[in-house]
Each structure stands twice: as C-alpha cells, then as structure tokens.
Amino acid sequence: MADLQPISVALEALLSDVRALEPESVSLEAAAGRVLAEAVTAQLDVPPFDNSAMDGYVLRASDAGKWLPISQRIAAGSPAVPLVEGSCARIFTGGEIPPGADCVVMQERVTQEGDRALIPDALPVGDNVRRQGRDVSRGELLLSAGECLEAAALGHLAGQGITQVSVRRQPRVALLSTGDEIIDPGTPLKPGQLYNSNRPMLKRLLENYGAEVVQLVSVPDDYAQTAMLLTQAASVADVVVSTGGVSVGEEDHVKAALASLGQLDMWKLAIRPGKPLALGRLPREDGSEARFVGLPGNPVSGFVGAWLFLRPLMGALLGCPALNALPALTATANFTTQTGPRQHYMRVALRFSEEGIIAEAFEDQNSGVLSSCISADALAVIDPHQQVEKGALVRCLWLQR
Which of 62, 65, 60, 54 lies closest to 84 in space, CA to CA? Predict the structure, then answer.
C-alpha cells in the first residue's frame, strides 16, 4: 500500500492551475443555480421608502390616546400626502408613511366610528414602520462574486430591478462509461451484462454542482477506440469524466490511453471506496487542456468520488467557494468499525436529537451497494488503522449540493 496517495495529495493535483471559467451575461429568469462572476452593488434602497408593516392607522406618536379624524387613506402603491396635523390616516401593509407621521398602530387595537378613530395610548415612535433602506442601502454590497443564485439571492437581485446578471460559464463535461458489459436501460440484458447505473447518477450530481453535461459516451473495451473517444471528448468539454477502465485488468484501457495522449497526474488513492481513481489532463488542438477524472466503475465508488473530487473541481471552475469543501460536522457513532491502511468514507444517516447528532452507518458498506447512498446524509471519515466503537465522535462530511 506504499504507493497509495492520500486524498489531500489527489485534490492538490486535481485543482492545480485550475482557473475560473469566463463570464457570460444571462437574464435573471435564466440565472437560477448559476454562479455570480462579479459582485453586485445595490443601486436602490430596500425598501425605497418608509412603509407600514401592517394594516392599521398611521399617526404622530404624540397624538396617541385620542380620538383622531381620518384624513386620508393610503393603499400600497399609492403616494401619500403629508399628514394633517392632529389627524391619522388609514394605511395598509406596504403603504407609504406620509410626511409628518412616525408610527403605525394595528387595526385590531383601534376603535373606528365613521371618519374618526380612537387610538390607544403610549405608542412608541417607529412602531410598525419599515424604514427606508432597512434591508439594503444604496451603495452597499448586494451579493459577492462566487455566490450561487438560489431563491433568496434571485429575489434580492429582482428587488433592485436587475434583469441581466454576469455569471460564470457552466463547466462543460463529457461523461464516458467504459466496458463492454455496461449497457443502457431499455436493452435486454445478456449473460454477464449490467445496466449503466453510473451515467444517470453522475449526470445528476454534475448538474447539481453547476456543470453542463454535453456528451454521454459508451466506450468499448478497446485501446484504439478508448483513445479516440477520449480525444473527441476533450475537444468539446472542459472536464472529461469516465467510469471504469482505470484498474489493472487487461481490458482496463483508460489509464494507458490517458498516459499516452496527455498526462496522468495521480492514480490509486488510499481511500475506501474508490482506490483506483485516475486524475490527469488531455490536450486539445488549440494547446489548452481538458481536466480528466477517471472514477472507478463500482457505483458507490463513483458516488463518493463525485462528492470528493467532481464537486470541488466544479467549484474551482465556477469560482464558487461554497463548493470547495463539504460542510463538516461532528457526530456520535452508533456503529462499530475497524479500518485498514485506507481512509474509509462510510455512508451514514444523521439523526438530530437533544443529545446531539447521531451517525447511523448502513450495515453493508460494500462499494457495489448503491442503495446505501439513497438515504445517506453524510460520509463518516474514518482514518486508517482505527477502531471505532459506539459512542465515539466521528467527523462527517455533509452531502449538500
């Protein structure tokens, strides 16, 4: 096992010299899930004027405890005129606070008779008033570069009247499935064949990480075909991902083709699952390079490898710090295990209780048992040569985006 490399060395090799992709402008409607390429500064105060936080009556706090004439009615979206001295105004949620008024009392506390209202006593100045700029002030940083545009961020941009945003181009990924025994669903299985579970799983994970999967290719167990298809994939993609073909079998041609065509940066890691993992680069005709990640063919190894390697690689290409590393938390193990010379990434479900976070490991941790990944919330990281007993504290990597 002396030639096995730790994950830290692999990540360093994978991310070496990676630069964020160029920006492009897209409409706000098309920006969901994209990553901001440039910081956005607020051009407007939010809210743009003092307004009422509820339906009620707006007045001067000094006039509280009196019967006051109702001098105007202020609906949301309608301009307010200055408040007549010694009066109140009927106001609705979002309505503009008129000049001269300084508080709002909710309608349930007011007695109205005709065109006058009895206001309760002791109202504080500013009560139920949403001040101009309370959320955002003009000139403030609205969103930082590298922010992923999910629901709240999109709303924040729309609140500024923004219709176009500068985002990073999505990394283009070619996804190659190797092996004569791997066939697509919908085709009857012959003896010795397996359906391709890696392809839809990895495609979905890559899309969740912000990538655009531009090519899906089946690669036969043939060196010449493997080399040709790797070259074609590199010509259209920023990243080429393969499953299978990186071990030491006679029909595993990917590693050899990669070393022949381009550069093999790393092979064989001291992790479980996922020991046979190839990292490298493939040249293009214009002199640039496509990154290459060769995942093992076992589906759990592919699943774990995607979270550990493809996610931070997409983060680097998108300039998105949130994707650089999985969130880590400490949990109490409700399982026992013992590791050998490799670091083990165990699929666990997390249970949140009054006593803290409990990690429940799936009983069968074999790299072919994909069902364990469906309900997995995290990967419990167990260092080499460790004995873990129930009640021990373990570090878990939370599987988020």
Answer: 60
- Structural domain harbouring 154: 23-46+134-168
Per residue in 327-373, pLDDT (tens digit) is 999 999 999 999 999 999 999 999 999 989 999 999 999 988 999 99
58 with 68, same domain: the answer is yes
Show the tokens assigned to 74: 């202020």
Cis amide bond preceding 188, omega within 30: no
The per-residue pLDDT of the chain, averaged, comes to: 94
> How far apart are the C-alpha atoms of 280 and 265, rounded to whole Å?
5
Q: Are 24 and 128 in contact (CB under 8 A)?
A: no
1 belongs to a structural domain = no
Nearest to 258 by CA among 268, 266, 250: 266
| Type of residue numbered 177 | S
The single-letter DSSP state of residue 35 is B
Alpha-carbon Rg for the chain in angstroms: 30
Beta carbons within 10 angstroms of residue 26's beta carbon? 16
Specify whether 57 is located in the same domain as 111: yes
Please answer whether residues 293 and 302 qualify as being in contact, where contact means their C-beta atoms are separated by less than 8 angstroms.
no
Helix (H) or strand (E) holding 255: helix 254-261
The answer to whether residues 257 and 337 belong to one domain is no
Q: Count how many domains the chain has.
A: 4
What is the end-to-end Cα distance of the chain in Å, rounded?
Answer: 32
Q: Which amino acid is at 72?
A: Q
| Secondary structure (3-state) at 87 | coil
Q: Is 268 left (phi over 0), alpha (psi -120 to 50) or beta?
A: left
Whether 389 and 281 share a structural domain: no
Residue-wise pLDDT tens digits, 64-120? 999 999 999 999 999 999 999 999 999 999 999 999 999 999 999 999 999 999 999
Under a CB-based contact definition with an 8 Å cutoff, are residues 198 and 302 in contact? yes
